[in-house]
Structures are given as C-alpha cells and as structure tokens.
Amino acid sequence: MTDIPTLEQTLLGAVRAAENEAALEALRISALGKKGSVSELLKSLGAMTPEERKEKGPLINGLRDRIAAAIAARREALQEAALAERLAAERVDVSLPVQEGPETRGRIHPISQVIDELTAIFADMGFSVAEGPDIETDFYNFTALNFPVGHPAREMHDTFFFPPDHRGERKLLRTHTSPVQIRTMLGQKPPIRVIIPGRTYRCDSDQTHTPMFHQVEGLVIDRSSNIGHLKWILEEFCKAFFEVDQVKMRFRPSFFPFTEPSAEVDIQCSRKGGEIRFGEGDDWLEILGCGMVHPNVLRNCGLDPDEYQGFAWGMGIDRIAMLKYGMPDLRPFFEADVRWLAHYGFRPLDLPTLAGGLSA
C-alpha cells in the first residue's frame, strides 16, 4: 500500500509549486480526480477487512480533505495575485483631470444665451417671437415707420445700401428690427403681442458699436393698451433679466419717428468698485427706448388709430449682455476666439427658465 505521509508531502509540495490555476487544476485531477492517486486509495478501502478499513479509512479521508483544502487555498492565492497584477497593469492616475466630452466641452455664445433668456421672460408674459428678413426695402425700414424724406437715418453714412435694381430702387440691410413690427401688423389682426430679436446693421465700429449687432424689440397692439402697461412690462423684464428683487426705473422724454410720446429708460444701478450692480446705488444707466406707437405707423399698417393703440420698445441685446455678464468690450463677441467663448459661454444643456434660473 502507498505510504500516505510520503504521498501527502509530495502532493502538498506540488500544490505549493503550482505557478498558475491551470497547473493547479491539473494537479487536482491527478490527485482527486476519478483516477487520481488519492481517489485510488479511497477505492482500495472496499477490499480491506473491517479492521484495516477502520484503521486506514480516517487516514485516507484526512489526506483527501487536507489536499483539497491546500488546493483551494493555493487557488485563492493565485487569484489574488492575478488580480493584483491586472490592477497594476490597468492602473489609472486619478489625479489627472477627466477629459470633457463634446457635449460638455462646447459652449453657447452669450448672445444666443441672452436671446433664450429674453424669450423665456416674455413668453411667460404671453409674447410670441416674430422674425423677418435682414435685407429690407425702404418702405419697411423707413417710410412705414414714419421716417420723413431727408431724415439723417436714410443717409449713406448710417445705412448699408445695395446698388439700385432695374427699377432704380435700393434695398438695404435693416438698421433696426422695427420693419418686423410693420410686417406683423400687416400680416395679422390685433391683439398683437410679439418680441423681435435679430441682427441689425449700421455704419459704426468702436468699443461699444459694431457694424452688425443684435436688437430685440417688443410690440403690443390692442384697443386698451396704455403706457402704464408698458411701464409694468419693462419693470418686470428688468427684474427677471438682471435677477434682482426690486428695480427703479425712470422714463425721460425723447424722440423717435415711430412713437409718440417717446421715452428713454434708465435703470438704477451702483458703479462702486468699477462694477455695475442693478437694484441698488444712486447712479442711472440708459438701457432702452420706448413709446406709444405713432398714429401714422398704425395708419400705414391699415389700422385705425381711433380704434387701436399700442406701445413698442427696443434695446441692444449685445449691450444688455455686456451689462449682465461684465463684458468690457463688444468686439470680442464677433472675433470667434475659443478662449473668450470658453470663459463667457454657457453649457449647452443649461437652458434658461424662470423656474430654474436664467443664468444658473
């Protein structure tokens, strides 16, 4: 009969020497498989006398249990070593910043963001968005808006005119978004409540002016619209846009050909420390122009000024964007500098809402 202690030492040594799980599995089969050395000893118990079985049985069963335990322990040690080796090979330096994906790396231009903010505010007041062409006729841009012949705004030094067509008429790049007011009044019946954001063009270029810039205008036409409604709308807009609880405004008499009476609107602000803050301080800053729609404009659009009246206002989107977000110069808005956009831009999925915050 096989020497059990010697076999045990041999098998335990082989278990310790197994370098991988494949070698260990082969050893397990050769020892504990159907034809393994330990299994053969177990089979021999059937041919023994009861006295021999009583003596050899515990020795052989103990050998089987110790070999099985040694194999299990060795397998666990090999698995831990393999895992440690894999972790070392796949180790990531977590101190390095995670590279942003394109959906988070991109930025929304401040102008686009502010237009979305304007739309959210006025949509909450019941306004819709109206649009029109950038290339306009003299009628829509000047005549229908009560600009008299010879008005300085019609001159070449202010307006980009195209060469005359075959009829001698010159089209132009619109100098304001007001032509869309005319198109809206001609295209639909009152009541009208629209805002008109868009590009406009004038011959001007410096730190606070560019040849192409953005405006937003508002128009309300109804039977009972009055300047009190205008004042409330502008106050609520300023509180929502500049995200302040209270705001003081003052209306100064002014002149625009398409409104009567006309006013320029100043908003209370503080300029301490070179930073403009709204809703506090003793200074004033002009932000927009407004007024009641001129009766001549209503007549030009086929509306009876004895039956309908309305009001309108307009402001520079670029200017209010600069004021809200602290941008000192208008020109970088149009320079396509990725560094500037990364600093002042907005994340694509951060849509402005009145509930969640316009610029959250």
TrEMBL record:
<dbReference type="InterPro" id="IPR010978">
    <property type="entry name" value="tRNA-bd_arm"/>
</dbReference>
<keyword id="KW-0963">Cytoplasm</keyword>
<keyword id="KW-0030">Aminoacyl-tRNA synthetase</keyword>
<dbReference type="Pfam" id="PF02912">
    <property type="entry name" value="Phe_tRNA-synt_N"/>
</dbReference>
<keyword id="KW-0067">ATP-binding</keyword>
<dbReference type="InterPro" id="IPR004529">
    <property type="entry name" value="Phe-tRNA-synth_IIc_asu"/>
</dbReference>
<dbReference type="InterPro" id="IPR002319">
    <property type="entry name" value="Phenylalanyl-tRNA_Synthase"/>
</dbReference>
<keyword id="KW-0479">Metal-binding</keyword>
<feature type="domain" description="Aminoacyl-transfer RNA synthetases class-II family profile">
    <location>
        <begin position="121"/>
        <end position="332"/>
    </location>
</feature>
<dbReference type="InterPro" id="IPR045864">
    <property type="entry name" value="aa-tRNA-synth_II/BPL/LPL"/>
</dbReference>
<dbReference type="Pfam" id="PF01409">
    <property type="entry name" value="tRNA-synt_2d"/>
</dbReference>
<keyword id="KW-0547">Nucleotide-binding</keyword>
<keyword id="KW-0460">Magnesium</keyword>
<keyword id="KW-0648">Protein biosynthesis</keyword>
<comment type="subunit">
    <text>Tetramer of two alpha and two beta subunits.</text>
</comment>
<protein>
    <recommendedName>
        <fullName>Phenylalanine--tRNA ligase alpha subunit</fullName>
        <ecNumber>6.1.1.20</ecNumber>
    </recommendedName>
</protein>
<comment type="similarity">
    <text>Belongs to the class-II aminoacyl-tRNA synthetase family. Phe-tRNA synthetase alpha subunit type 1 subfamily.</text>
</comment>
<feature type="binding site">
    <location>
        <position position="260"/>
    </location>
    <ligand>
        <name>Mg(2+)</name>
    </ligand>
</feature>
<keyword id="KW-0436">Ligase</keyword>
<dbReference type="InterPro" id="IPR006195">
    <property type="entry name" value="aa-tRNA-synth_II"/>
</dbReference>
<dbReference type="InterPro" id="IPR022911">
    <property type="entry name" value="Phe_tRNA_ligase_alpha1_bac"/>
</dbReference>
<dbReference type="GO" id="GO:0004826">
    <property type="term" value="F:phenylalanine-tRNA ligase activity"/>
</dbReference>
<dbReference type="InterPro" id="IPR004188">
    <property type="entry name" value="Phe-tRNA_ligase_II_N"/>
</dbReference>
